[in-house]
Design goal:
TIM Barrel, 8-stranded parallel β-barrel, 14 helices
Length: 334
């Protein structure tokens, strides 16, 4: 199995710019185009998916991620099935509890039981099953489609739930081999307990990626990405025996908005976590020049023996990121 690459942050509200960026990403060698679902900032994710699929030839497109809070799971199932009808077999549905799209409208991320219910409902509807939803009779999707439902996560309970019920997982725990091995084993062990073969399930590694020739900028953005992982799941730092070196995260989040991974003012966020050193930052993200990122990724994937899917999420999206991936990073793994 060869390594495949995906990227995301296609959140342009201008359809022509969105189409051009997708064409450029496919030409750069990306096999998957992943789209965020943040209704206040990125438009409609399903329209964005359709735009990407209509302007590319081979790349798959998927959500990274929708959530079961801002949309009822039946609405999500119907929408992704409709998109797949325009590009059969090229569509994936990534789902997670929700972050900015939920918090910014006064709601809370989905709990484990809500996530499990949503995944099972969506997969059932997409498979053409009749699902009991409280109507006078079980409900069906009129045009079911075989779209894989993938959970993006980094915590043990969601990893285990993905192994039991989903078609795959996107692991988001940073770039330390120990964390990734632990996550993979949680997912794979749960699949085996459920009587499933984990080798048949889609598995991807997600990495926040800072590509720049400016060493100071790489260091600043890398600190922010590392802080984002502590904010969401401080246990990841504990597993690596790392001590949080900054002010309490709750105090910082009164200043950094909406959160570290999506900070509106990255420079401010970087100043708030100046105590995080580069060595620590590199345990949670890929950072540096394109050549340095390639070398870091080569070491990591070699240590893991990895030959699956890799998602590079740009912290500095744009032409320089695409060009660096096309010329320096992706060819090294082909």
């Amino acid at each position: 199995m060869a390594i495949t690459f995906g990227t995301n942050r296609f959140s342009f509200l201008d359809p022509e710019r969105l189409a051009r960026s997708c064409v450029a990403a496919e030409a750069a060698g990306f096999d998957y185009l992943w789209f965020p679902d943040s209704q206040l900032h990125a438009g409609d994710v399903f329209l964005n998916l359709l735009t990407a699929l209509k302007h590319t030839e081979r790349a798959r497109a998927g959500t990274l991620v929708v959530n079961p809070v801002t949309r009822h799971p039946s609405v999500t199932a119907a929408s992704i099935a409709d998109v797949d009808s325009y590009a059969p077999g090229r569509v994936s549905l990534g789902i997670a509890p929700g972050d900015t799209s939920v918090w910014q409208v006064g709601l809370r991320p989905a709990r484990l039981a809500q996530m499990e219910s949503a995944v099972r409902m969506i997969r059932g509807l997409l498979a053409g099953e009749a699902i009991e939803l409280g109507w006078s009779a079980p409900s069906r999707l009129d045009q079911p489609r075989a779209v894989p439902v993938i959970i993006a996560c980094g915590g043990p309970r969601l990893l285990r739930m993905a192994g039991q019920y989903a078609d795959g997982v996107v692991i988001r725990v940073g770039t330390d081999p120990a964390l990734i091995r632990w996550s993979l084993e949680e997912f794979r062990a749960s699949a085996r307990i459920a009587g499933r073969d984990p080798d048949t399930l889609f598995t991807a590694l997600h990495f926040h990626t800072v590509i720049t020739d400016d060493a100071a900028l790489a260091s600043a953005r890398g600190r922010v990405m590392a802080a984002g992982y502590y904010e969401v799941n401080p246990r990841l730092w504990e597993v690596l025996n790392l001590t949080w070196p900054c002010a309490p995260i709750g105090e910082l989040l009164r200043i950094v908005r909406p959160d570290f991974h999506h900070a509106a003012d990255m420079e401010l966020a970087a100043r708030m976590v100046a105590g995080i050193d580069d060595e620590t930052a590199r345990r949670f993200c890929l950072m540096g020049t394109a050549a340095q990122v390639r070398a870091q990724l080569e070491r990591l994937l070699a240590a893991l023996g990895w030959d699956g899917h890799v998602i590079l999420q740009p912290n500095l999206p744009g032409r320089a990121f695409i060009a660096g991936c096309a010329a320096t990073i992706i060819p090294a793994f082909r």
